[in-house]
Amino acid sequence: MEGTVTVLARFTGYIYLAVAHAGDPVIVVITLSGGRIGPLSIVLPGHRTLPLNSSARGRLRGGVIEIDALRINLHQARIHESALKARMAPARVPSWLEGVLRDLAPLPRRTAILPSVSAPASPSAEARALTRLFHAGLASGHARDIAMAAGRLAGLGRGLTPGGDDFLCGFMVAVWFSAPDPIQTCMPILTAARGQTTSLSLAFLDAAAHGHVSDTWRDFLEPVSHDAPRTGVLKNVMAPGFSSGEDTLAGFIWGMQAMHMPPAALPPIPLDALSAMGGAPD
Description:
Blueprint: E1 3-11, E2 14-20, E3 26-32, E4 41-44, E5 57-61, E6 64-67, E7 70-73, E8 78-79, H1 93-104, H2 113-118, H3 125-140, H4 143-153, E9 161-162, H5 163-178, H6 182-193, H7 199-209, H8 215-221, H9 231-238, H10 244-260, H11 271-275, E10 278-279
Parallel strand pairs: 3-4
Antiparallel strand pairs: 1-2, 1-5, 2-3, 4-8, 5-6, 6-7, 9-10
Helix pairs in contact: 3-4, 4-6, 5-6, 5-7, 5-10, 6-7, 8-9
């Protein structure tokens, strides 16, 4: 693949690149030594920093990214396995989720998004209506209802990865973790998000829709951790960005509740909180 390369953003341990070619740009996360590894990561071992400015431009030719005087040989990079292989039987979900919420309760957090899916405040009429629509789509399998609900959340919020997108990513991880036919649910969500959000956020939504997650999420959901203390892995899941990690975890928890709780007990989608959230999963 060849094309123009643009630096979208840079954080400690990560550089987000967009490679332009026919169709949508391809998003690549150059992950430096010590950075968290995710589904878009190309790992450059031995590099802890790269001298690139945000919005710098260059080219990808012959497997080499060239930006200013910098050369990144992708043939020397490592593409990381990111498919979520862990699955949970429905009968185990209530007790497991209760344990997750119990372990989560004392942990410090940056925003109010997580309490809103475990001990919600008074929701707006719009949030209640969106919750009913989303749950109806899940229960019936109707792609139209799922897409309509997801379309209300896609692009909602601020920054490179708006809070609504992060919430949908977490929701789709829950679907892959515990639903029998995840593609049937996730593809309408991905379709609804196209054209409503940033190219970076759409790339993360695409990865989640196909069952790909970061190392921290794989650690959280692997069977070996199901009955183990979760404090450490929950902190790691919550850590990315200002609110991205917490927004994603909120979407996961709500998704597990929506699939395994009676409708009357389902917390409303935290629409107002999400509209103020966003960032980038640094």
